[in-house]
Amino acid sequence: MKKEIIYTENAPKPGNYSQAIKFGNLIYVSGQTADDIITGKPIYGSITEQTEHILNNIKSILEAAGSEMSKVLKCTVFLSSLDHKREFEEVYKRFFTENPPARITVAVKEIDAGLNVEIDVIAAV
């Protein structure tokens, strides 16, 4: 099997990593934070705004790889505090309405650029 780099202009430009890697029938999407796709600068909004922005970026990356949100198998969610979990959940359940993926949610001391949410996913093609 060959590793395929996935890139779309409809999500933030990556740093020294790929937006996603497609390998066989799986897509590994790198951790996404709420970055503006035009300016590349962080979006310091509410947990709701950050989560919506991130999940829309993940949706764009998956579509560029030939997949969709309903094919997400696993999510890893990093929150700057578990106090944000309730607000995060309200947005998350709108993106995964049926048969949600496996998931881990952890609180971490710091997220890149002082943001409050980071999410990565593994999806099927």
Task: Provide a quick synopsis of the model.
The chain is of the alpha+beta class and 125 residues long. It has helices at 47-64, 85-95, and strands spanning 3-6, 20-23, 26-32, 72-79, 102-107, 117-124.
Can you walk me through this structure?
With 125 residues, the chain is of the alpha+beta class. It is built from 2 helices and 6 strands. Helix content is 23%, strand content 30%. The two termini are 14 Å apart. Helix 1 packs parallel to helix 2 (85-95). A 6-stranded mixed beta sheet has the order 1-2-3-6-4-5, covered by helices on one side. It is globular and about 40 Å long. It has helices spanning 47-64, 85-95, and strands at residues 3-6, 20-23, 26-32, 72-79, 102-107, 117-124. The mean pLDDT is 97. The relative contact order is 0.24. It has one domain: RutC-like (60s Ribosomal Protein L30, Chain: A).
